[in-house]
Amino acid sequence: MSTNTDPRPSIRFRGRNFLALVVAPDPPLDKWYQDLDSWLARAPAFFMGRPVILDLSAVALDKAGIAALVQQLQARNVRVMGIDGAEVEWLGLGIPPSLVGGKGEPAPAVAAEQAHAHAVAPSDGEPSSLVVDGAVRSGQSIYFPRGDVTVVGAVQSGAEIVAGGSITVHGALRGRAIAGASGNDKARIFCRKFEAEFLCIDGYYLDADSLDPRLHGKPVQARLDGGRLITEPMD
């Protein structure tokens, strides 16, 4: 009778959920690239360090076209880890793998134009809100696509909050606030002192040049109304 005396442990395989953004290009791609560049100019940290799933269901591309699209995204520091909506036989070396078993969810606009992205995240046992106890400093990015974010302090200029739900800032909002990033058109943004650089809810945005100067320094809420992002004072 033989005995296995190999001291090495057996190979272990585990299933694990990871958070990723789904980016869904729309034709024509030249216009979509322009919209994406416009979005990145306003929210440069949005994709930073975050894996991306590329949804090709809205565009008809061959292998060379897919490779060119992936290269265009990589040049913009958008990291594509997998592809959905393409025939498996098209894919090869140099192209991220095709995904199997993903949920088919529509991707809301990341900007008011045609650049699309939405978050896919595990839900079982995950918290639905995040509290940041203190100020968010310039250069920091808080990313929580599972639900609401509350900041007990200020959001400084150059800082960014990205939430799947609503954002509440109990101090001054001087940086960028992106709510409804998971495709939630009911999300809102609240702040005690309104000095924002950029606001976005479910893809509809206002930059600093579009914000009402009469609200500067006042308690404000932002919400969607009939496909428009509006800001209004809080009583």
From TrEMBL:
Source species, domain of life: Bacteria
Domain Septum formation inhibitor MinC C-terminal: 131-230
Domain Septum formation inhibitor MinC N-terminal: start-end pairs: 11-79
Keywords of this entry: Cell cycle, Cell division, Septation
Keyword check for Nucleotide-binding: no
Any Pfam family hit: MinC_C
HAMAP family from the UniProt entry: MinC
Chain's role: Cell division inhibitor that blocks the formation of polar Z ring septums. Rapidly oscillates between the poles of the cell to destabilize FtsZ filaments that have formed before they mature into polar Z rings. Prevents FtsZ polymerization.
Name recorded for this polypeptide: Probable septum site-determining protein MinC
Species name: Alsobacter ponti
Protein's gene: minC
